[in-house]
Amino acid sequence: MVRRRFAAVALVTLAGLCAPAAAASAQDAVFNVEIKDRRADTEGRLDIVRVSLGPSHEEQMVGQVTMARRWAADDLRIEGRPPGTLCYKLYVRRVAGDEPPDFLVCATAPAAGEELAGTVLRNRSNGLPRALGAAVVRRLSNRTVELRFARSLIGSPARLSFVVEGVTFAKGCPLPQGCVDLSPEMRPARLRLG
């Protein structure tokens, strides 16, 4: 009898320990979310394999994007082709899949050099996105980049959904859409911030 009761308690404890993993796989997280993505699911150089997003203690949001292989600013700027981008598409009020994102947090390559530029933009229904401020872009490795921006730029929402999109226009990538990789692929990740 005691052994059965112990076994039942052990199963409940294990179920409790597994619950956060189940929540993460459902892409519905509190305060921070990390998503792993399939390799070789794009023809472009930006093959996303991991993304994360969450708040930092300085009232900022911090996102990290890791590619399957090393990449450089030259992968975003191809002579004679449109510039490539790496963007967090943030949905605060709009519905992902039905509408464009409310905000974009993007890293782009300058005309020369390796230092990526970051911008936070707000999508407008009657025109091009409007720049709201800067995002700090930092290289963590030859595969991973970090984007950091003020949470107040997106209105300090209590919750949001997001998708990371990498777009490149290397030779062989079709115009006008380019080679695109999305993470997560099936539906946006959800993040509760308060």
Biggest beta sheet attributes: 12 strands, mixed
Q: Based on helices, strands and strand pairing, what is the structural class?
A: mainly beta
Mind telling me the C-alpha Rg? 19 Å
- The general outline is globular
Q: Report the uncertain regions.
A: 1-29
User: Strand portion, in percent?
Assistant: 35-45%
Query: What percentage of residues falls in helices of 4 or more residues?
Result: 10-25%
SSE run:
HEEEEEEEEEEEE
Report the span from N to C terminus.
44 Å
Count of the separate structural domains: 2
Average pLDDT works out at 84
Q: Report the strand count.
A: 12
Number of contiguous helices: 1
Describe the fold and architecture.
It is built from one helix and twelve strands, in the order αββββββββββββ. The chain is mainly beta. Strands 1, 2, 3, 4, 5, 6, 7, 8, 9, 10, 11 and 12 form a twelve-stranded mixed sheet that branches. The longest helix is centred in the first third of the chain and has 24 residues. The termini are far apart. The N terminus is likely disordered.
